[in-house]
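=== Structure Prediction Worksheet ===
Name of assembly: unnamed complex
Input type: mixed (protein and possibly other molecules)
Chain count: two
Listed entries:
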Amino acid sequence: MSIPTRHFDALIIGAGGAGLNAALQLAGAETSVAVVSKVFPTRSHTVAAQGGVNAALANVLPDNWHWHMFDTVKGSDYLGDQDAIEFMCREAIPTVYELEHAGVPFSRLDNGKIYQRAFGGQSQDFGGDQAARTCAAADRTGHAILHTLYQQNIRAKTHFFDEYFALDLVRDKEGTICGALVLEIETGEPLLIEAKATLLATGGCGQVFRTTSNAHINTGDGCAMTLRAGIPLMDMEFYQFHPTGIAGKGLLITEGVRGEGGFLVNQDGERFMERYAPRAKDLASRDVVARSIVTEVKEGRGAGEHADYVLLKLDHLGADVIDKRLPGIRESSRIFAGADPVREPIPVFPTAHYQMGGIPTDRFGRVVMPARYGSEEVIAGLYAAGECACASVHGANRLGGNSLLDILVFGRLAGKDIIDYVRANPHRRETDPASLEQAMARLTRWEYTGDGVPAHQLKAEFRKCMEDHAGVFRTEEVMAEGYGKLCELRERFKDARLADQSKVFNTARIEALELENLIDVGLAIAVSALNRKESRGAHSRPDYPLRDDVNWMKHSLYYRDGDRMDYKPVRTKPLTVESFPPKERVY
Amino acid sequence: MIDPTLIPDPDGVTDEEIRRLRWQCRRGMLELDHLLLPFLDRSEGYRALDPARRAEFVALLGEQDQDLSNWFMSRRVPEDPRFHHLIQHILAVVAADRS
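=== Predicted Assembly ===
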């Protein structure tokens, strides 16, 4: 098999905040680095992050990294690894300053220091008064960070492979990962990129669910490649849903709408939250509101032609309040739901937002898995950072402002670790032809014609099944039924065919390859969720409503081979400070 | 950042042109996916534009996601009046499809 081959010290797959921050460290150290991105880098999903980056700079209110660490451990519902969390909260401070020096235009205070805003879940003095910890560049933080990092990478001569789709990791004869087979989307031709170290930074997988706030590009590509390489994914059952996305579209409608007095009604106009949460009503916690909405729909009280959403009413607030206190809501609703909330309610349904689990790594971004001598053996030359990775700093739930922080800190540290790794392992590794052939098979299978179900037809069915059976409503019965359906879909996908056999910009083929990734990652979520018999953080089970620290304070590991589950302990010992023991979470 | 291979064919819209543009309509923000891709697919969308306006659409795709989002969501008005008209046209086509 003759496939054009390129060689680099480091290969980075994904050009969002994590990938670009890693690339910048490497390029600055004169390490040859290739970044592969399926879309133009500044169209990565980091651009959509508007919130900001947490760092205990104490510019507005007293703060320190140890308080930030406490909040993050508590927010994780004690499933986060406390060594990684301590590390992230300490590193947050130099990471933000490094970005400032690189040119990110953070909003300022009058005294010239970086402005910091308060977000939910932030406290002073270990659970005391509200803290102000989030650094932002107005309402375009993700955009500002992505553009700054991209421009710095161009200056540092990082080699970009724009609009190349990564097919699979490849190994040498000894089994060491030595790069990836990628596909040039424009020509439809494969390219082998060999590298001494490979970093997966491919972002989240929100597209596994029918309703998601994630862009179409978020198809879990790196996670699926990891699974196919025989490496498990960790804590995939922990997926953050936002209770109010625009029905059928997924775009977030801020919780501020309910905070300002908006409320949810079913098809009969009933304020149903009064039944599920008589005291907090529409301001109950996210998982309670999300599950209540799904229950209304499941029991036939949904609104609309298909009774598949509920309504968020805010017309009683008046145009002035809506325009002044909820900017953008009117426009979003008018454009995407065809409803002006001044007069009509907004159709809403829970929307999949953020993946807490992912590729298991240590705090240096090195991928780890159970092997002969322990549950966390480093896989030589393979790294992961960002939403696709699980360090694990978010545990069972993520705090606002910690996602941009995660991608930046661990992207940066992975880059630094790769520099050392490449220096210590300077020799080129050659791809084993058998490994290359296996990766190529992922591509060539789409050349088969003849009978078979069109690939795109399975996509909607799969995403709906994930939403119905592995979304916010998670009982044994619902999930076990869903697992059966998902297995059946996985089988049917083996006979999927493509009508379009063209090569140039064959987007149907890319979408089929993405669907294969979605199926692999979706099964990881569904099986991990079915097996965890407790409620913790974002994983909420009505049939096991309590957190069970005796049996379940452990990380899940899902293997694709046989849908097998394994578990490993949570790292409860921080690096330099005392552990935070598990407590009931009260906010 | 206009890709010369994306300049529309004056003789009519080709399948390859649509396929190339489809990938350019994949963006970092979901709201842009929900506006640009349907506009490309609808018969009264991209295919109904004359070559000059198709070239404007290609130029629009070369703009940054954050700017496109601001323009579509009426947070800002593009300086280029051609873009302003095109943005309004895309919104109208996508809204008509929904109704």
